[in-house]
Design goal:
This protein is of the alpha/beta class. The strands form four sheets. Strands 5-4-3-8-9-12 form a six-stranded mixed sheet, sandwiched between helices. A hairpin with a 5-residue loop joins strand 6 and strand 7. It is elongated and about 100 Å long. The protein is built from ten helices and 13 strands. About 45% of the residues lie in helices and about 20% in strands.
Amino acid sequence: MTFLAPERLALVALPIVLAIAYLVLQRRRSRYAMRFASVDLLDQVAPDRPGWRRHVAALAFLAAVCLLVVGMARPAAAMEVPAQASIVLALDVSYSMEASDVSPNRLAAAQDAARRFLDLVPDGVRVGLVAFSSSARALVPPTTDRTRLEAAIDRLRLGPGTAIGEAIYVALEQLPKVETPAGSPASSPDVTGPDGEQVESSAGSIVLLSDGKTTAGRSESGAARAAAAAGVPVSTIAFGTARGVVTVDGQRVSVPVDKAALKSVARTSGGQSFEAASAEQLQTVFEDLGKKAGTIREEREVTDLVVGAALVAAVAAAAASLAWFSRLP
């Protein structure tokens, strides 16, 4: 938690002074009570002493004052808040996705997880779909039409090669461009890409799933830098195990996951990197991404919550004092 007016926290001295005064008065009260010559006489004079109850109202009142001081300092906390967003889902459909180290195979498991992702993404979030093997192609531009997206996921077919870099570039083209006020320092949406070319700033993010390394097209490292320049984080999912094998022209070919390359893409672009070695783990990753989709984390003032807590503490102090002593604190 942070404070927008931290200098006001100095007012915490007020409840501290009140607490000290309360303790001093309690000690004086105890000394006065002990002046009675006989404890038996004290019991006759005040047979029903309130004991611990007399402190409850005071403590609740002090808590209310402390909370009011915190509220005056305008506390703020980081929280997930709704945001208009577009997400492009880039799925690897290279031949290595036929490996059955993940049941029933990598592609089928990825399709199931992608459908689950669509179920969890908030309705207002636009989702696009890019498929890539030796090249990348946009199958569905960002849309809220989940039926269209599910149909495109069902139609995915395998192909040769893996073009991770091309997938990122195509996904960037699908995202809406950032509009900035005219005359502002950032009024030009063009920024410099990894090779000095002009790249337009985009609004949204990319989720890329792959099980292999780049074998075609432009490098994934250059694409990651272009995404970073456009302000688009690329979250990557390394899917599969080191035991993956496919049959090509009658020969068994090992297709292990290139985790390092995908982690580098996420790190460079400002996204998150995930690993999934089973269909269950992949479902968990997509569920996590789906729940967070359409939100951004930002500082929000929570003064109303703190003042509300102060009101509850004040009412509790009043209720306790009225119930036990027939007076307000």
